TrEMBL record:
<protein>
    <recommendedName>
        <fullName>Glucose-6-phosphate isomerase</fullName>
        <ecNumber>5.3.1.9</ecNumber>
    </recommendedName>
</protein>
<dbReference type="InterPro" id="IPR035476">
    <property type="entry name" value="SIS_PGI_1"/>
</dbReference>
<comment type="pathway">
    <text>Carbohydrate degradation; glycolysis; D-glyceraldehyde 3-phosphate and glycerone phosphate from D-glucose: step 2/4.</text>
</comment>
<dbReference type="GO" id="GO:0006094">
    <property type="term" value="P:gluconeogenesis"/>
</dbReference>
<keyword id="KW-0312">Gluconeogenesis</keyword>
<dbReference type="InterPro" id="IPR035482">
    <property type="entry name" value="SIS_PGI_2"/>
</dbReference>
<dbReference type="GO" id="GO:0048029">
    <property type="term" value="F:monosaccharide binding"/>
</dbReference>
<keyword id="KW-0413">Isomerase</keyword>
<keyword id="KW-0324">Glycolysis</keyword>
<keyword id="KW-0963">Cytoplasm</keyword>
<dbReference type="Pfam" id="PF00342">
    <property type="entry name" value="PGI"/>
</dbReference>
<dbReference type="GO" id="GO:0006096">
    <property type="term" value="P:glycolytic process"/>
</dbReference>
<dbReference type="GO" id="GO:0097367">
    <property type="term" value="F:carbohydrate derivative binding"/>
</dbReference>
<dbReference type="InterPro" id="IPR023096">
    <property type="entry name" value="G6P_Isomerase_C"/>
</dbReference>
<dbReference type="InterPro" id="IPR018189">
    <property type="entry name" value="Phosphoglucose_isomerase_CS"/>
</dbReference>
<dbReference type="GO" id="GO:0005829">
    <property type="term" value="C:cytosol"/>
</dbReference>
<dbReference type="InterPro" id="IPR001672">
    <property type="entry name" value="G6P_Isomerase"/>
</dbReference>
């Protein structure tokens, strides 16, 4: 085990003991020595173990026989979950307790997909009716835009949508849009429409997202929980200017709508509050795709009914997470395996490898969900954590990734992989005369990669294949590299909701076990504060036509770079 780097040296009186001090944790640490004596090459041949190490729920099949665990390890991990009071923490989340204690907020993204008849209280008030008021408003508005009842300023239908937002106000909706674009019934609902995203404040992103669009037929959705995020607000002003320049000030009310928790600032920006879609402080940005953040732009594109199925899929997993015994609980089991890999096997990263192009934006979304949630150095009580938490998430669809970074995963660093396969593809391509379809070919790789990582290839095997001695070290695969395989029957709105919720709750499980707060994100603040200091100074220097000096409060390195930038701009 490695001690987390750079954690503050603070003492917290009366804080509960860290999970690493418990017998369950110590037992796992000792058990790791046993696991180190095993190899996946042998473990994977054990029929009984293979049968035991699967978990399945409502079409989601998860095989974790290629994790470096035995049934005994799993028993110990479930004991760790009990020790960490995982059940109590899940219950506290679903019952609206302020478990995000550093921001004094409930954590109830699950309420954004709860059926109408559910009761979920926050501070004594059932919030489900509020959720459905907004969903009904989204349904009404998006149907009007889609059927041409709501027209642009010059009377034309609004067939293009640009959603402006960043981080959690962008990555989730982009992930879902990418998942549904080629999905039969969803794509049918999107016929004749386009949805684009503008996230980066980079003028290149502005140009690309507006390229070829006609303001007369474009609806802009400004998405920001706070409505203060510098990049989003600058992009919103830029695009508002783009509309006004072409159609006049009056056009804004027909062409710009907003999603935010801060309806006051929406009004001050000049967007009619009637055209604002609310959400609430108990929905974290990175957990907000099922709120109006995702539901508004995605319903504009695909229709509300399709997006309702997405909510149903997510809620299906929510209920499973809240009620299923841990041994049968998909997100809990996956979360415990990640804790095992990070904190006991010292694996610093996790690769998310969907074998479908439609999940190309899953890894970028989960990168924020997981890394912003569990990238913490202190416990929820502020105690420095003596064990590693969080992991570096990255990934690309297979087989593209195989031709890129898999080399390192096979013969370099040990990186647990999530392989995600779809049984029935969104598209079917059969070349005449070929028996194996494109999708079969893709899935052959899905099955093969997991075994290649687990089993590897020995020098003995290579010799038997007459491999020259000089190449044997290079062609040997150590194997024993963990992965898990998730299979879904198909990828549609419903299963996209399921996969989203599985990852969200897996991340929560990890955070609950590690005893940290997965729902704040103080670590992103410092950079924002420093950027505003740079912005203020840049403004002043530009206005006065001056150079930066050592009196401006920046270090010599930053001063030199800023001067270089300012001079470059002036030339
Ligand atoms: O900088 C990180 C962050 O605060 C995320 O947590 C959030 O999703 C993103 O910025 C965007 O924030 P907002 O929706 O308030 O514009």
């Amino acid at each position: 085990m490695v001690v987390a780097q750079g954690v503050p040296d603070v003492s917290v009186d009366d804080a509960p003991a860290l999970i690493s001090t418990t017998d369950a944790w110590k037992d796992l640490a000792a058990h790791k020595e046993e696991i180190d004596k095993t190899h996946l090459r042998d473990l994977i041949e054990d029929q009984k173990r293979c049968e035991a190490l699967t978990v399945e729920y409502n079409g989601v099949y998860c095989d974790y026989a290629r994790q470096r665990v035995t049934e005994e390890t799993m028993t110990k991990l479930y004991e760790l979950a009990d020790e960490a009071n995982l059940k109590g923490k899940i219950n506290a989340m679903f019952s609206g307790e302020h478990i995000n204690s550093t921001e004094d907020r409930a954590v109830l993204h699950v309420a954004t997909r709860a059926p109408r008849n559910k009761v979920i209280n926050v501070d004594g008030k059932n919030v489900v009716p509020d959720v459905w008021d907004v969903l009904d408003k989204i349904k009404d508005f998006t149907e009007k835009v889609r059927n041409g009842e709501w027209l642009g300023h010059t009377g034309k239908p609004l067939t293009s949508v640009v959603a402006i937002g960043i981080g959690g106000s962008f990555l989730g909706p982009l992930f879902v849009h990418t998942a549904l674009r080629t999905c039969g019934e969803a794509a049918e609902g999107a016929r004749g429409r386009q949805l684009r995203f503008l996230a980066n404040v980079d003028p290149v992103d502005v140009a690309r997202s507006l390229n070829g669009l006609d303001p007369e037929t474009t609806l802009v959705v400004v998405v920001s929980k706070t409505f203060t995020t510098a990049e989003t607000m600058l992009n919103a002003r830029t695009v508002r200017q783009w509309i006004i320049a072409s159609l006049g000030q009056e056009a804004v009310k027909k062409h710009m709508v907003a999603v935010s928790t801060n309806l006051k600032l929406v009004g001050e920006f000049g967007i009619d509050p009637d055209n604002a879609f609310a959400f609430w402080d108990w929905v974290g940005g990175r957990y907000s795709v099922c709120s109006a953040v995702g539901m508004l732009p995605l319903s504009l594109q695909y229709g509300f009914e399709t997006m309702e199925k997405f909510l149903e899929g997510a809620w299906n997993i929510d209920e499973h997470f809240a009620t299923a015994p841990f041994e049968e609980n998909v997100p809990v089991t996956l979360g415990l395996l990640s804790v095992w890999n990070v904190s006991f096997l010292d694996c610093p990263a996790r690769a998310i490898l969907p074998y479908t192009q439609a999940l190309a934006k899953l890894a970028p979304h989960i990168q924020q969900v997981a890394m912003e949630s569990n990238g913490k150095g202190v416990s929820i009580d502020g105690q420095p954590l003596p064990y590693d938490t969080g992991e570096i998430d990255f990934g690309e669809p297979g087989t593209n990734g195989q031709h890129s970074f898999y080399q390192l995963i096979h013969q370099g660093r040990t990186i647990p992989c999530d392989f995600i396969g779809i049984i029935k593809s969104q598209q079917s391509v059969y070349l005449k005369g070929e028996i194996v379809s494109n999708h079969d070919e893709l899935m052959c790789n899905f099955f093969a990669q997991a075994d290649a990582l687990a089993v590897g290839k020995t020098a003995v095997q290579l010799r038997s294949e007459n491999c020259p001695d000089s190449l044997i070290p290079h062609k040997t695969f150590t194997g024993n590299r963990p992965s898990l395989s998730i299979m879904l029957p198909a990828l549609n709105a419903y299963t996209t909701g399921q996969i989203l919720a599985i990852y969200e709750h897996r991340v929560a499980t990890q955070g609950f076990i590690w005893g940290l707060n997965s729902f704040d994100q103080w670590g992103v603040e410092l950079g924002k504060v420093l950027a505003s200091k740079v912005r203020a100074t840049m403004n002043e220097k530009r206005t006065k036509g001056e150079k930066m000096s050592d009196k401006d409060g920046f270090n010599p390195s930053t001063t030199a770079m800023l001067n270089r930038y300012l001079e470059g701009k002036a030339q």
